[in-house]
Write a structure and sequence with these properties.
Chain lengths: ~525, ~210, ~110
């Protein structure tokens, strides 16, 4: 009935981040300096990560608004690693007098992602998602203050607020139908919805409407259709470091929230849900890849690439909706990690090339980079190859799992129509991967086969470290994908455990009642 | 008036005030939509939100209704009006929307509204009012329960039988803490964003 | 004489839906960033009405407890926080562009 010591224990890593972020805010008014607070924040992520590692408890019970499943742990580790890496990038590129605020705001943003990863309650989920959004607006501003940034922030802010309002409206419907705010567990939305049919006239007929509103609202965070069009403008107006942040961190939060609500907690609309998600996946990746073809601005190119990757992730979500324990959630998580590090490496490389006078934003600025900056060019090439899905890099395994998941649903599912839909999805994904290779390889070709230009690139040490780390990680994940696969598969089975248990109980009850009748 | 109140059932007045406040809420919301003058829009919004506080009272959520009046009408809208004042270039700012966008917006919005309305009347349980017996309009005393829920004790769900469920109900202490973190970020962020550009470049030159 | 209405959850949902749609259209059509913000407030208020109606023991036979009211309180606070950020953003935009007409912002195109 109360918040007991166990809840505090479960929340300890997030509490550490919040407390130390507050400390940075206060201390930043006394002690200025980038690396002072940058290193302090890195230590904070270290403490928090240690607390996550120590605190892993495989409890079957759901504890209030938090769920201790291993999906949450994967998300928390990812968030902490991303937080530490972005701290390095932002510390090196932020203005000196704003460094402490930037770092602390980023810490709260990361804390929001960690909380989204473990939310088991609608209120908690919504509030955590807002903890991802609000620091993002502030960070966009702290990066740079000119016309383009203020325009980008206005666009991002209003669309973000609209999307969270739409999401909230969907959540009200969900609350009204289920009568509870808990997502999974006994007496939760998931167990209430399990037995509801979606036929017209009943209570369940509202769940499709709620689902569409929720997918639309979370689609903004993922940069998926229909809320995708902000991405190119906003990324172009932001700094390279901030664009990287926007491309990666909200996407993690959006995908996890979608998995938690739409895949796990709404079982009765799965049939309708996968149709919607499948169409969105096809449209999103096609729009992203086709529009990326003729971009000259690197941040716009990466924005369309980010849209396209949101489409790929939706493939995994659709697979997870269509078939129980099909590896859809695991594939999506793996792809999310691969995308996050590939994209982070690219943006960190761009940030490392920028200096105070000029930043790298156009494709031709990279020409001949292989000769002037061979390490940076190599790291960009690795990230591009990975994002394009070329073996043996991590991106290949990501796409491979997603597409084989779609193929498995196409072959294993009973229905004829389902098979056709998922076959189309798999083929569409493969065609899109081919289109995407064109513009990723174009970046590599510009770096390696065009004459070098006179350009004074900056030396951003933090960003360079992050870039190399990301590139190495992408290669390592490509060669040894098994370790991460094990973690994501475990996350999927643990996240679905409550669902499977509830279904088993329901099936047993149905058998029991049918036997009692005669 | 007193006589009239004695003659008709209390449920009549419930319905009467519901229609009254609902019309005010929707009417002024439409006023916000169709007005071109930003000052008038702000005024209509005050009235619309204030009237919806009346709807909250009628649904038995007195505390939320009072908060709606205090925070929204008293706080948020003052902020909005500050915004209008600080960015006003001419005496009355009015910005006309091209008619093409109106047609598109109203068409899409109309379809959405039809969908939501059909949804609202689809469920039988929601269509049927609770009836005279259940409609007791006495003080529902929710504010202390809400306060307890924010500190982590669900007084309204003490009779929860399921032990696992009862153990999991930690109230809303954690979201409450998270919201306070939001407010911290907002304070810091708004302070930095709203600084004028000249001062920002001046400090930038120093740093 | 006003016809006697027995109020049910559906009636509240209708008001909520009207506020939601009005707010969305407002956001889509207003050129003024403060006007867009007013649209947001309407949408959030529509969602709040839904929460209150679903959780109300006056309107529904099976009471759902206080969850709806608590959620709507959180939404009110978040709306206030977002309004503060929005004001700061609008002021900053005004400082940079000398207008709050969002259509004037067209530097970013590809």
């Amino acid at each position: 009935m109360y918040v007991d010591l166990d809840t505090i224990k479960l929340l300890w890593p997030e509490l550490v981040l919040v407390l130390l972020a507050t400390w940075i805010y206060i201390g930043g008014t006394i002690q200025q300096g980038r690396w002072w607070w940058g290193l302090f924040a890195l230590a904070a992520y270290g403490v928090s990560g240690h607390a996550v590692a120590v605190g892993i408890v495989e409890a079957n019970t759901v504890s209030g608004p938090l769920t201790p499943d291993s999906l949450g742990y994967v998300v928390r580790f990812t968030a902490i690693v991303l937080g530490a890496l972005f701290t390095l990038v932002l510390t090196a590129s932020a203005r000196k007098e704003l460094a402490s605020e930037t770092i602390a705001t980023l810490m709260l943003l990361i804390c929001g992602v960690m909380l989204v990863g473990r939310a088991n309650d609608l209120v908690f989920l919504f509030v955590s998602l807002e903890l991802v959004s609000i620091p993002t607006y502030v960070l966009l501003y702290l990066g740079r203050r000119d016309r383009a940034t203020s325009e980008a922030t206005v666009k991002y802010f209003f669309l973000s607020v609209l999307s969270s309002a739409v999401l909230l409206y969907g959540l009200t419907m969900l609350y009204g139908v289920a009568g509870t705010t808990t997502l999974v567990g006994p007496g939760s939305i998931q167990s209430e919805l399990q037995s509801l049919s979606v036929d017209a006239g009943g209570l369940g007929s509202l769940t499709p409407v709620a689902l569409v509103l929720i997918i639309a609202g979370l689609g903004f965070k993922m940069a998926a259709v229909p809320f995708h069009f902000y991405a190119p403008d906003v990324y172009q107006g932001a700094t390279n470091a901030n664009a990287g942040l926007l491309a990666v961190v909200p996407k993690v939060a959006g995908v996890i929230a979608l998995i938690r609500v739409a895949v796990i907690a709404m079982p009765n609309v799965a049939e309708f849900a996968w149709h919607v998600t499948l169409v969105l996946a096809l449209v999103t990746m096609t729009i992203g890849n086709v529009c990326a073809l003729w971009q000259q601005n690197l941040r716009r190119l990466m924005a369309y690439s980010s849209i396209a990757h949101a489409g790929y992730m939706l493939i995994g979500v659709a697979v997870a909706m269509a078939m129980e324990a099909s590896g859809g959630i695991s594939g999506t998580l793996f792809y999310l990690l691969v995308y996050a590090f590939g994209s982070l490496g690219m943006f960190a490389a761009l940030a490392s090339l920028g200096s105070d006078e000029q930043e790298v934003s156009r494709l031709e600025q990279l020409s001949g980079l292989a000769r002037s900056r061979p390490f940076v060019a190599g790291a960009i090439a690795v990230c591009m190859f990975s994002l394009a899905g070329i073996p043996p890099l991590a991106g290949f395994w990501g796409k491979f799992t997603l597409f084989t998941g779609a193929v498995r649903v196409a072959t294993d599912s009973g229905g004829q129509a389902t098979s056709v839909w998922f076959a189309v999805l798999a083929v569409g994904g493969a065609i899109n991967a081919a289109i995407a290779a064109v513009y990723y390889l174009r970046v590599v070709a510009v770096m390696y086969f065009q004459p070098s230009r006179e350009a004074n690139f900056g030396t951003n040490v933090g960003a360079r470290v992050v870039m190399l780390f990301a590139a190495v990680l992408v290669v390592a994940l490509g060669i040894f994908p098994r370790s991460i696969f094990n973690a994501t598969e475990h996350a999927e089975s643990s996240a679905l455990r409550e669902k499977v248990a509830a279904q088993t109980i329901q099936r047993l009850e149905a058998i029991a009642t049918s036997q009692q009748v005669p | 008036m007193m006589l009239l109140a004695a003659e008709v059932a209390p449920s009549f007045w419930h319905g009467f005030f519901f229609v009254f406040f609902a019309l005010l809420t929707c009417g002024f919301a439409l006023g916000v939509l169709f007005s071109n003058n930003i000052v008038r829009m702000a005024f209509y919004l005050v009235l619309s939100l204030g009237a919806s506080a009346g709807l909250f009272f009628l649904a038995g959520a007195e505390f939320v209704g009072a908060m709606q009046l205090m925070i929204y009408v008293g706080g948020t809208l003052v902020l909005l009006i500050f915004g209008v004042m600080l960015t006003a270039q001419s005496r009355f700012i009015s910005m006309k929307t091209p008619s093409g966008e109106w047609v598109l917006g109203v068409a899409v919005g109309g379809c959405l509204l039809l969908l939501l309305l059909s949804v609202a009347f689809q469920v039988k349980d929601w269509r049927t009012p609770r009836g005279k017996g259940g409609l007791s309009l006495e003080d529902s005393k929710t504010s202390s329960q809400i306060g307890m829920a924010f500190t982590g004790v669900r007084v309204d769900k003490l009779d929860q039988k399921n032990e696992q469920l009862a153990g999991g109900m930690s109230g809303y202490l954690l979201p409450f803490v998270i919201v306070s973190v939001h407010l911290l970020v907002v304070l810091v962020g708004a302070a930095y964003m709203a600084r004028t550009k000249r001062r920002a470049t001046a400090t930038g030159a120093v740093g | 004489m006003i016809a006697l209405v027995s109020v049910s959850v559906s009636h509240y949902l209708v008001v909520g839906a009207i506020l939601f749609v009005t707010g969305v259209i407002c956001m889509a059509t207003k050129r003024n960033s403060l006007g867009v913000l007013m649209g947001v407030e309407l949408v959030l208020n529509g969602a709040n009405l839904n929460f209150i109606a679903f959780g109300s023991s006056y309107l529904r036979a099976n009471s759902l407890g206080l969850d709806g009211q608590l959620m709507s309180l959180f939404v009110i606070v978040l709306a206030a926080a977002e309004a503060a950020v929005a004001l700061a953003i609008a002021l900053n935009f005004y400082n940079n562009h000398s207008t709050i007409d969002v259509d004037q912002a067209s530097d970013l195109k590809g």
